[in-house]
Each structure stands twice: as structure tokens, then as C-alpha cells.
Specification:
D-Maltodextrin-Binding Protein, domain 2; 2 domains; 44% helix; 5 strands; alpha/beta; 197 residues; 10% strand
Amino acid sequence: MLIVHPSLPVRSVKAFIAYAQANPGKLSYGTSAAGSSQHLTMEYFKLTAKTDVVHVPYKGAPQALSDVIGGQIPTSVQSAPAVLPAIQSERVRALAVTSLKRISQLPAVPTMHETALPAFQVNSWYGLCAPSATPAAVLEKVHADLVAVLRTPEVQQRFNDLVIDVAPTSREQFGQFMQAETARWARVVKAAGIQRH
């Protein structure tokens, strides 16, 4: 989610982009670390929206969130589960979620896709991988068992409580997805000049 401190005079992604473009290099955003998913998401946002917002890396996401809440920095991209209490208590303002659909816990918060950036989508995702020499029969068995567990009502409810959308795919789809994600984020890293530390 793209969040801002309530003192920042913006209430939408369009207004945020306009404000950032009118004040290049004057806004900063906090992340959990250089090269983190938060950092890459905001750099992707900057490239897409053509804005200049300064990165401030922290030693963890809670510290970055704490400084947005305290007004030390004006904005951040945070995971929905981590930032939900601060949004609900109005200590920060949510401008948009980065997924293609709104989250049920905050139905009034639009997606980036709906607002100013139609092609923008960033999701945290998880997958299970195995060594390349693993027999296909073993991979198929593990995949089938994992999908069965993910579809149980108890697991679905637990993930829903954590603001996680469960969407199992085939092994082939997951491999194609990983290749596409690797290519996309490699472009962002190169364009943003992010260096390995």
C-alpha cells in the first residue's frame, strides 16, 4: 500500500504524483532496506509516474512505518497487514493498494490500477521451489498436496485474516510467472541504478 503522513496535502495517487512532480527531490520515502520489495515497488512507481522521490533505507519496515506515523518522513510503501492498524486509527492515510483488486479490509482504498497508473501492479507472492534434479512425480505430489491444503477453509480463513489472497497455480504457470517477474524487476533495478551491497 502507498501511504502518506496525514500532514501531506494529498488524498489520491493523482494528487501525490502532481505534488511530487511539482516538488522534485523534496519528498522522501522510507523502506525496510535498500533492494527490498518496498524499495523496488517505489522505484517502479517513480519510473511509471515520472516522479523524483528520495529513498531513505531503514533497518526494517517497522522503523520506516514508525517514522511515517511520526511525521519524520512523508511516505512509504508498506504491506497491508503491517499498516492496517495505523490506517484504521488514521495515523497514516492510504492512497492506494498496489494489487489489481481492492482488499476487503479497506474497500474504500482504490488500486493504483484504478487511479492514475492503469498498468501498475505489484503483489507480494510466495512459492515453493525444489532442486532441479527432483523427480517430476515428487514435484507433482508436493504440488497437489500443497494446493489441497491451501484450499481448506481453515487455511483460506487464516490467510484472509493476514490480508493474503491465496491463488495457487500450476507448476508451469508459476515458472513462467517467476521468469516474467525476474525480467520486470531486473529492468527496474537497472533503471533505478540499484547497486548490490
